[in-house]
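#data-curation
PF: Archiving a pair of folding outputs for the training set. Convention for this channel: one message per protein, sequence first, structure tokens after, nothing in between. First:
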Amino acid sequence: MKQKEFKAISKRSKELLESGENLHVDYKEKLKGLHAEDFVAFANSKHGGSILIGVKENTNELGQQIGTPNGCEISDDAKLQIISKALSCIPPIQVEVFSENTQKKAFYRIEIPTGEHKPYCTNSGTYKIREDARNSPIHPKQLLTMFLEKEGQEFRDRFADATGNLEQQMIDTLQLVGELENAINSKIDEISSSMGWAEYEASSAKNTIDTVDSYTKAIHRNSEKLNTRIEAVLSQLNLKDPIKENT
């Protein structure tokens, strides 16, 4: 919870006072007028909002609705009450609390961001959302949509993690197979070289045959190791051998 004190009115608060109550701003004349459902309503909205405590709504000379600071208690106990009400929501709502001062009046500005874990409710199970300049109950259909969006996002996150791990496992498998293929190709190249040498050294034919036989056995051993390792990888990934399935 971020807390900050201003010796004068910030630019942000001046804008909120001049705007009047609306979709993004709510005024409370006294701290006792602040309730958990006020935090819930803004957290459930798309853009969050601000609450000014110690401010009442008035009309200026042009007939426009504005906020006028009438002051409120500024103390650690008052801040604790604000934060406690935000944390009592389900899930808890993180807010920023600012204390601001005119020459004679001090008031609180509370910033409530749009929630990442909608829908939010009070500890008594009340669901609200900010609409126009008031907090409105959330209709069952709208509430269901929020739940589905939340569950859908969690599913997408879990799916992305699962497929990411599978992709890495496949990359490791392909790398392993590639290394074994390179080893076998190397043995084949050695055999080809030995066969070519044998053509020019007829007197060493028996040695050549022995060499070919040795390399052939080496290839057979590598092939058995390759099959064993591939079967282990397929078992780890819970996959079946496509070649055996087709035979």
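PF: Second:
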Amino acid sequence: AVNLAIPFTNALFSIAVLFAVGSSTLIAIFIAQEKRREANALFSQNFATLLTLGAVITALVLLFLEPFAYLLGADEITLDYVKQYILGIAPFSVCYLVSYNLQVIVKTDGYALFTVIGGCLTNCVLDSIAIFPLDMGVFGAAVATGISQLVTCISYFVHFFSKKCTFRLCKFRFDPHLYARILPIGLSDGVTELCT
């Protein structure tokens, strides 16, 4: 069930890296040109876009759960397990998109964090608790993985809302033209991630 559901999380990572590589490149250019307002606006727009995408993906997956499980390759034997796993992980779609996106953008800010290791360790500990003492099965494994992504998001938020961060969330006017620059830059990385 987990193996069948992996393409879903790969697709989330693919979307996140598509936006992250393009936006981090433009943010770095804006910072080098001392255009802080533009860097902040792009960072904020990118963040809002990913929150919206994550909410839409979650809603669609939960609305079409069974057809989606079949699309991933579930059959009569694995269907219930795949649905349980997707039910546990889909509500965390926003966390997947945001954490992986911020993982790339945090490098633009010249700041390194051990958040990936922390998220991985959180996943391992929560998996063993959810599966064994709590007996939550594959649903528990999915929730544990989702919570680990939430922990990773929170770790990044600590940095991005700190005084050490060189760009910040701000009010912005949505500019769709930015994506004409962002998406071509991130496309190859997004496709590479999707190919796994």
